[in-house]
Design goal:
Elements (H helix, E strand, L loop, with lengths): L2 E4 L5 E7 L2 H16 L8 E8 L4 H17 L2 E11 L2 E10 L2 H4 L7 E3 L6 E3 L2 E9 L1
Helix pairs in contact: 1-2
């Protein structure tokens, strides 16, 4: 299972894994989308961004925070992310559609992405981490 929710007293804690680091980032985005937009989202719009940040937990936190920013500012419901790592960080493309309250309401508002407990580890199966969504 690429991501699964873990018990947490106040926020949403996800255990995320991927066979590659690219998959880990894309699954972390998918976990975020599942919390924010539980209904079906079509891929009618795209958003592209780049991040210059050292590899590691901070890059993953910045990547997910940037997704939150675009979802809010562009008023878009998102369903998928594609990540390409660069020498200085990453390049990402987000896929979704304009947010419609009658279609996309019902999700949980995520206020931020916490670095607390986030530690990217390599296992025999790939890469895993815990991601805490502040709600």
């Amino acid at each position: 299972m690429p991501f699964s929710e873990r018990e947490h007293t106040a926020d949403v804690l996800m255990h995320v894994c991927g066979a590659t680091k690219k998959e880990l980032y894309e699954e972390a985005a998918r976990a975020l989308f599942s919390v924010m937009f539980p209904s079906s989202v079509k891929e009618k719009a795209t958003i592209h961004f780049t991040l210059d940040e050292e590899d590691g937990e901070r890059l993953l936190q910045e990547f997910l925070s940037e997704i939150l920013f675009y979802a809010e500012v562009e008023c878009v419901a998102l369903s998928r992310a594609e990540v390409t790592f660069t020498a200085s960080g990453l390049s990402a493309e987000l896929f979704g559609e304009p947010f419609l309250r009658e279609k996309h309401a019902g999700g949980t508002e995520v206020k931020g992405i916490s670095l607390s407990g986030m530690e990217i580890t390599r296992t025999d199966e790939g890469w895993c981490t815990l991601v805490l969504f502040d709600v």
